[in-house]
Amino acid sequence: MRRREFIEYTANGFGALAVPQHAWSALREEPELSIVNGAEHAWVLDNPRFPMNARYSNCPNSRPQRNYSRQHLLAEMKVHGVDKVVISQVCYYGTDNSYTIHCVRTDPERFSGIGLLVGSGLYRPDDPLNPMRLESLMEAGLAGLRLSPIYDPETTWLNDPVSYPLWEKAQDLGAVFNIFLKPHQLGQVADMARRFPGVKVVIDHFAMIDLGRPDEEGIDLILGLQPLSNVYIRTSLHNPSRQGLPFRDMWPYLRRVYDVFGPRRMIYANFYELLIIKDLIPFFSAEDKAWILGETAREAYSLSGTARR
Questions:
Q1: How many Å apart are CA 18 and CA 5, to the nearest integer?
Q2: Is there a contact between 237 and 276 (Cβ–Cβ < 8 Å)?
Q3: Which CATH number is 34-300 given?
Q4: What does residue 87 show for φ and ψ, rounded to 5 degrees?
């Protein structure tokens, strides 16, 4: 739905996203950016090589209505001027990471990938084979995993000692863990990021903070992760927002993350939020955008190219 809104806005001169003429003049003077989209899904329908098998899926009752294929991502990248995309394994495939691996292997200069392995509907956190499975995925070309304790809000497994072997292997391999969770679970992230500083952790979707709740139950918990230098924040605004594009109710929270973490620990994601981060947010400098829109992701996901110093 949000992607359709984006298309409608752009087709009508950005609608509510309109930028003043003086701002466009300033934008034209900015240096060209090398953009990395930090999170997109990818899948194909009715492809016998990459079937959607409910046995492996952690959303077995869901099925998309259209393709969102490697070719589609490449076309979107061309339209938006995006150089690289980090593909986050979609729930339809679950622990069968074959299509994400296929995308990365077919276009290694354009794609990186994050797999699914452990959690609700997937392998149990205490499965002794998880470290070996992670190593196999990374040997196949993936950069790490997405962990989603958000689907187990009443169960603590992220920092349970049974998860230590997986994190130990991740640290040995230099893996990235994207973590999709609720604010009350951020303490578990802090524990593991502190125990395993060699694992890079990316907090997805602002930890799904509830804008109607007090700050100490949401954004303050995110900001409390700042001392942990291996923790990054994804700038995705749309999930916590209660508004449509350009999600202005999230801008003050984005500003607080920017003020505390700085641009070198912020990662842009989602095609339809590119114009918001690149052209509308008033407090990002050109240098900030270079990091948020690309260089931070290059460092976090060990992508080709050298981050600015």
A1: 14
A2: yes
A3: 3.20.20.140
A4: -85, 125
